[in-house]
Each structure stands twice: as C-alpha cells, then as structure tokens.
Write a structure and sequence with these properties.
This protein is of the alpha/beta class. It contains seven helices and ten strands. The strands form two sheets. Strands 6-7-8-3-9-10 form a six-stranded mixed sheet, with helices on both faces. Strands 2-1-4-5 form a four-stranded antiparallel sheet, covered by helices on one side.
Length: 220
C-alpha cells in the first residue's frame, strides 16, 4: 500500500522567456516501509521535489498524498500540525537546538505537539542508534556523526508516517556517512519506517531499496 503518492507535480518560477521549470510533471509512489533514494545533480530538481513532498513549499500544479491525506489542500496551522505529526525531517545541517540536551532534542517535536512521550519506544530508538550514554550532552559536545544520529532519533521518535532526508550525510566524511546511512536503514527496517532520501552520491543512493533519478525536473 502506498504511503506517499505524488501526482503530476509541477513547480515553475518566472514567466515568458525567464520561465524556469524546477519540476515538470513528476509522479511517483512510495510503499509503506520502503527506503527510496532520489538522486540527481545540483539543480536537477531533487530538493524542490523533497520540499513539495514535505509540504515545505506548494506546487504550481499537482498534488501530494501522505497517509491518504492530500496535503496540497492544507494551509497554515493545519499544514504545520500535519507535518509535525506525520513527517520526520532529517537535514544536512542537523538542525538541533544548541541550548538543550540530546534527549530534549529527540523528544522536542512530541512535546511541541502536546503529546506524551512513548518512553519505551524512544528508549529503543536511542539504544539502536547508540546514544544511550550521550543523552545529557548538548549538541556542540558531539561529533558530526553523533549529531546526525540525534537528528535521526528525533525524526523517528514521534512515529511519523514518513521520514524525508535531505542530503543527510552531506556534512560528514565518507566512513561516517556509511555508518550513519547504515543506521538509518537499520532503524527504518526495525521500526517499519518509510524513508525518502535525496542525494547526489551514487554510492549512498545504492544503500536504498529503490533509486529514482531526476534530471532537469523530470524523472528519468
């Protein structure tokens, strides 16, 4: 069963001779529990596509359906709440809050939503990612690979319908990248999470179950 469906997505900027087609009629489906990589060079449209899939930007045309909900029709607070509850984001720059501990960073989205933390589940995620002895530290006291593991734990902790990873190893060296991606794949399988990752790196893309290549705003 498809957890994510994108139908005829278009994202155009400008008009006339200055028209730029960042995405031009892109459709795709991702099955529940699947790990999909979207690969493309800089300017291919992969980041634009991820922003559309995550509700961070609106398409010029087309729609995105996540967990049977058409997010193209959501606005303002409704869209923010849906993103917080249904989508876990992992960014290249980690995006951790520097002034709070690792544990507080991991459970922050749950607390922002006013929900009770499922301690058994979160502890399981923390243990799987090897963060048990790092919970009281602040992010600046961790290595880049450790910070990205915290970001993965935060994305998993709220049990989202889908995780979107934007060049998650872009700031890491090659060995740390392999370690982090291995952990992301392991946790995805263990907790039956659906993961969509964009990357420009063929070697990293091949760690996914399926790879989609995008060039010049089209899937090729």
């Amino acid at each position: 069963m498809s957890i994510l469906v994108a139908e005829h997505l278009k994202k155009y900027y400008g008009e006339g001779e200055s028209l730029v087609k960042a995405l031009d009629d892109v459709s795709l489906q991702v099955e529940r529990g699947e790990f999909v990589s979207i690969i493309g060079t800089s300017g291919s449209g992969k980041s634009t596509l991820l922003h559309m899939l995550g509700g961070l930007d609106n398409p010029t045309e087309g729609k995105v359906i996540i967990d049977d909900k058409d997010i193209s029709n959501l606005k303002g607070d409704d869209l923010c709440i849906f993103r917080r509850r249904k989508i876990g984001f992992i960014f290249q720059s980690f995006n951790l809050v520097p002034s709070i501990s690792v544990y507080e960073n991991i459970v922050l989205p749950i607390k922002l939503d006013g929900k009770k933390v499922d301690k058994e589940f979160v502890d399981n995620v923390i243990e799987t990612l090897g963060l048990t002895n790092k919970l009281d530290r602040i992010p600046s006291k961790l290595s880049g690979g450790q910070q990205q593991r915290v970001a993965i734990a935060r994305a998993l902790a709220s049990k989202p319908a889908i995780i979107l990873a934007d060049e998650p190893t872009g700031n890491l060296d090659s060995k740390t990248s392999q370690d982090v991606l291995g952990l992301l794949k392991t946790t995805g399988k263990k907790f039956n999470q659906t993961i969509v990752m964009i990357t420009h790196n063929d070697e990293i893309a091949q760690m996914a179950d399926r790879t989609i290549r995008i060039e010049d705003g089209h899937i090729v």
